[in-house]
Amino acid sequence: MEDNAIIQLYWARDEGAIAASEKKYGGYCGAIARNIVGDRQTAEECVNDTWLRAWDTMPPQKPSKLAAFLGRITRNLSFDRYRQSHADRRGNGVFGEVLDELAECVSGDEGPETEWERRELAEAIDGFLRQLPKDRRRLFVRRYWYGERVSDIAAECGMTSSAVSTALGRMRDSLRRYLSERGFAL
Predict the structure, then answer these.
(1) What pLDDT, in 10s, does the model give residues 58-73?
(2) What is the 8-class DSSP label of residue 108?
(3) Which pick of 57, 73, 75, 135 has the fewest CB atoms within 10 Å?
């Protein structure tokens, strides 16, 4: 089923929208959730919560790209669940590693940051990613958006884990310099 038809089902308050979303994007959202939370049952709960959140937000929202919209919801819910379950300990999921790697580039301070500052940072990171070659951008996004393991990225890209780690380290250094040059406090 086409994305526009699925969105129309949400807008018509037709419960078939959830089944269509599950059929088309269940695997995609499940992979995002599993990479972040680290266990299948919690990932399934996050995906089910994604369908509910999509139901609650459409209308009034009408996403232009349904996959990105559902992926973002899944990622945010999974990240919330991860933080909740790892409040006092790091656990053995890969997402703790991902956060540690990016901590040196982007501050994790929970100060009185405004929505405008967040948008500015997001735009700067988007600008950084746009300047990367497509293969490097793909590595960065797979690791830091989807939370994939370095070994999995390496296997699928025909690289060694060491080469992926080195490339990611260089990209983090470049991101840190890029953000610093644009006035972001790191």
Answers:
(1) 988 899 899 989 998 9
(2) -
(3) 135
Answer whether 136's CB lies under 8 Å from 128's CB.
Answer: no
Angle value at C-alpha 86, between 83 and 89, nearest 5 degrees: 140
Place of tokens 């080195």: 166
Ordered by start, the domain boundaries in the chain are 3-85, 94-181
Q: What six digits make up the tokens of 59?
A: 């209308």
pLDDT tens profile 114-123: 556 777 877 8
Band of pLDDT at residue 90, cut at 50, 70 and 90: very low
Give 94-181's CATH code, choosing from 3.30.1360.120, 1.10.10.10, 3.90.25.10, 1.20.140.160: 1.20.140.160
Contacts of 101 (CB under 8 A, 6+ apart): 143, 144, 168, 172
Mean pLDDT of 89-117: 56
Give how far the C-alpha of residue 80 lies from the chain's centroid of Cα atoms, to the nearest Å.
Answer: 12
The pLDDT of residue 100: 62
